[in-house]
Write a structure and sequence with these properties.
It is a single chain. The protein has 167 residues and is of the alpha+beta class. Helix 3 crosses helix 4. Helix content is 28%, strand content 27%. It is flat, with a radius of gyration of 22 Å. The protein has a five-stranded mixed beta sheet with strand order 6-7-5-9-8. The protein has a four-stranded mixed beta sheet with strand order 3-2-1-4, with no helix packed on it. It folds into two domains: 28 residues, no CATH class; 91 residues.
């Protein structure tokens, strides 16, 4: 089996009747950027210079609901962080302190990254977040500080991340 010689004037014809990959639909993500400046009517975050920030509200700002407040209102998280294991149960208060500190640090720079809720389930704690990056960041911070097992399951169709930390 050798290589085939292609004639010099040969042009491949591509077919246009193939299957196209379906786009991910995230109803919480706007198709367009908000008008500038805009302010969230619930949390006060300001959309300015292409991103959400914590700023003084400009006098001419448009009022809207940011994506984080929308997810919180609908109880529809993008990130799920489950923490479990004997070490977790023995050091729960200290670990939850790290979780909240990490969220506060991220929220200062990224107003849309917030914890929605915390729930105790069968010896584990579930923390839900408004953003997949926050769930991942908290999981990585836990792993860095305490080791243990860290597992990620990303669902691109729903833009959803499940993080499990066990120790």
């Amino acid at each position: 089996m050798g290589t085939q010689n292609t004639p010099p004037n040969f042009r491949p014809i591509s077919r246009h009747d193939g299957l196209f990959k379906e786009r991910v639909h995230d109803s919480y993500k706007s198709k367009e950027k908000p008008q500038e400046p805009s302010v969230c009517s619930q949390c006060g975050a300001v959309f300015h210079e292409g991103r959400w920030q914590w700023l003084q509200t400009p006098a001419n700002a448009h009022s809207l609901q940011c994506l984080a407040c929308h997810r919180i209102h609908d109880h529809y998280p993008a990130g799920f962080l489950t923490m479990k294991g004997e070490f977790f149960l023995a050091h729960r208060d200290e670990i939850m302190h790290l979780v909240h500190n990490h969220e506060q640090l991220e929220r200062k720079e990224h107003p849309l990254q917030r914890i929605i809720a915390e729930e105790e389930k069968e010896g584990a704690t579930l923390v839900t977040t408004t953003d997949i990056h926050l769930a991942r960041g908290i999981g990585e911070a836990l792993h860095h500080a305490y080791q243990g097992e860290l597992d990620f399951h990303y669902n691109p169709e729903q833009n959803l991340l499940r993080v499990t930390w066990t120790h």
